[in-house]
TrEMBL record:
Native organism: Polyporus arcularius HHB13444
Record-given protein name: Uncharacterized protein
């Protein structure tokens, strides 16, 4: 395998990483097995293994919840899946439909709203991911989720970010903003 050109190896890895339609095989497991063969193959497989990462958010984001810094150069798509809905937000929203995107912005004095995403941590860490192209912040349809304007500003201020999606979240700026 070492006698193969690096471009040929990348083509092989690219073929392994794509799943044929209707195929039961799992490309991630195949790539993981290939990456364990040697250090050189691991370096070649890293962009395919860690190109898309998901962070499950059920409490405040800390550095430990983010992927390890050794894979940051390989992350292209980062998804924050918010699994914790906020009961206070449900009370505030009880007087109108939850999924009304044209409703007026409602300010709140509840300081814990928007606390799941630490803007300082996000700003610093997302800027440290040089190949990051898209961030997707998603909440389940069953709950009501919150994100602060400061966290949105931190995400959107990443200069190399090209795509951002915010799904099923409510924005409640604090009164002191």
């Amino acid at each position: 395998m070492f006698q193969l050109n690096g471009d040929v190896l990348l083509n092989i890895i690219g073929i392994i990483s794509t799943k044929a339609e209707g195929s039961p095989r799992n490309p991630e497991l195949d790539l993981c097995a290939l990456s364990l063969t040697c250090h050189y193959m691991r370096e070649l497989c890293m962009p395919y293994l860690f190109g898309a990462c998901t962070v499950m958010v059920n409490s405040c984001i800390t550095l430990e919840k983010l992927p390890p810094s050794s894979v940051w150069p390989h992350i292209k798509n980062l998804r924050f899946s918010n699994t914790r809905h906020h009961p206070e937000l449900r009370k505030i929203k009880s007087h109108r439909r939850i999924f009304n995107p044209k409703g007026p912005i409602q300010y709140t004095s509840i300081s814990e709203l928007g606390g799941l995403f630490n803007p300082l941590l996000l700003n610093e860490q997302l800027r440290s991911m040089p190949n990051l192209r898209s961030v997707y912040v998603h909440g389940d349809r069953d709950g009501v989720y919150d994100i602060s304007l400061a966290a949105l500003k931190a995400i959107l201020s990443v200069p190399h970010l090209r795509d951002f999606k915010l799904v099923n979240h409510e924005i409640y700026p604090c009164l002191d903003v």
